């Protein structure tokens, strides 16, 4: 697994999909108040799947506002009520406690948990590996031992597995439109296969395999394409890196030919610029798809992922 120490994401990691509540802006569009199959999605990557697969047959509303940390989400009374009136809810269990609680207490018949549709991995288990050696188990903090990385949508293969599961759930829940759900899902899966091919080919031959990020959001992507992610601040993208960590990364940048420190569109770039200035490196955006905003380099999942690929190819010196 090409993920080094400092890769300690948990289900409370900040870098998760964020999206607008535009579909909730009017009562007529709220979940349970339309003639369509009403789906409530907890955050952007789930919303995108529901819209792509559901097409014209679904009305999708979302729970996480632009720029809001998903794990800090507190649901309004209206959101809870809308969720309870939905035909289906699509979420990632343990990511957002408020959503988990609302789903558990709701009478929604179709509850689709993305975490059950693919395998989540504990990238944090290699937090203490260094130069091929693993630290004794007793040195690892207990809270890191079972940390599961939720950023499955940044790996097109895992995202496709979730998409397949969502399609099957919608087909079963709304059989009258099952044929269209299958057709839409097949088209989406084909696009995700193409995206995976683009990443595989684009990152196959690079001068370096190491990239620096604000925090550990790209573990699945790194593992899929044979790269190594080094996070400056670990879990919290807003935290200040220690002087020791900055020095360590400066040394590694020289050793591994690192050229760029990536930051995100929705969090401060202070830590990235601190390291870049001290180590004489460039900075660029690598978007963990925390939602589509006016700062996003693209209007949807695929456009942002293609932008990420372009940035990675440049930073890694793709041949």
Give a description of the structure:
It is a single chain. The chain has 319 residues and is α/β, with parallel strands linked by helices. It is built from ten helices and eight strands. The strands form two sheets. It has a four-stranded parallel beta sheet with strand order 2-1-3-4, sandwiched between helices. Strands 6-5-7-8 form a four-stranded parallel beta sheet, with helices on both faces. Helix 1 links the parallel strand 1 and strand 2. Helix 5 runs antiparallel to helix 6 (178-202). It is globular, with a radius of gyration of 20 Å. The chain starts with 36 loop residues before the first strand and ends with a helix.
Strand content: 5-15%
Q: Helix fraction?
A: 25-40%
The string of secondary-structure elements, in order, is EHEHEHEHHHEHEHEHEH
Task: Please work out how many helical segments DSSP would assign.
Answer: 10
Poorly predicted residue ranges: 1-28, 125-145
Describe the largest sheet.
4 strands, parallel
Overall outline = globular
How many β-strand stretches? 8
Which secondary-structure class do the elements indicate?
A: alpha/beta
**Euclidean distance between termini CA atoms:** 23 Å
Cross-sheet strand order for the largest sheet: 2-1-3-4
Please state the average pLDDT score. Answer: 82
Using only CA atoms, what is the Rg?
Answer: 20 Å
């Amino acid at each position: 697994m090409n993920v080094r120490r400092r890769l300690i994401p948990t289900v409370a990691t900040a870098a998760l999909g964020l999206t607008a509540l535009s579909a909730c802006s009017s009562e007529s569009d709220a979940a349970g108040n339309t003639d369509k199959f009403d789906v409530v999605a907890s955050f952007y990557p789930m919303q995108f799947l529901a819209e792509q697969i559901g097409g014209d047959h679904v009305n999708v509303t979302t729970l996480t506002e632009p720029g809001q940390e998903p794990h800090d989400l507190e649901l309004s009374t209206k959101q809870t009520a809308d969720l309870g009136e939905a035909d289906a809810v699509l979420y990632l269990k343990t990511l957002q406690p408020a959503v988990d609680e609302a789903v558990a207490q709701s009478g929604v018949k179709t509850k689709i948990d993305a975490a059950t549709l693919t395998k989540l991995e504990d990238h944090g288990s290699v937090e203490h590996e260094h130069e091929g050696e693993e630290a004794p188990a007793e040195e690892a903090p207990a809270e890191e031992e079972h940390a599961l990385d939720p950023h499955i949508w940044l790996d097109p293969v895992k995202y496709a597995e979730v998409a397949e599961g969502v399609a099957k759930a919608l087909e079963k829940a709304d059989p009258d439109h099952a044929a269209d759900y299958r057709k839409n899902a097949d088209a989406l899966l084909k696009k995700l296969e193409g995206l995976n091919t683009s990443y595989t080919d684009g990152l196959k031959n690079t001068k370096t395999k190491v990239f620096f990020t604000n925090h550990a959001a790209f573990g699945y992507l790194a593992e899929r394409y044979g790269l190594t992610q080094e996070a400056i601040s670990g879990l919290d993208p807003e935290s200040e890196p220690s002087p020791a960590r900055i020095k360590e990364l400066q040394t590694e940048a020289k050793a591994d030919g690192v050229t760029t420190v990536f930051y995100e569109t929705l969090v401060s770039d202070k830590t990235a610029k601190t390291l870049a200035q001290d180590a004489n490196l460039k900075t660029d955006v690598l978007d963990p798809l925390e939602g589509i905003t006016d700062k996003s380099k693209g209007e949807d999942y695929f456009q942002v992922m293609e932008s990420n690929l372009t940035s990675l190819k440049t930073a890694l010196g793709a041949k």
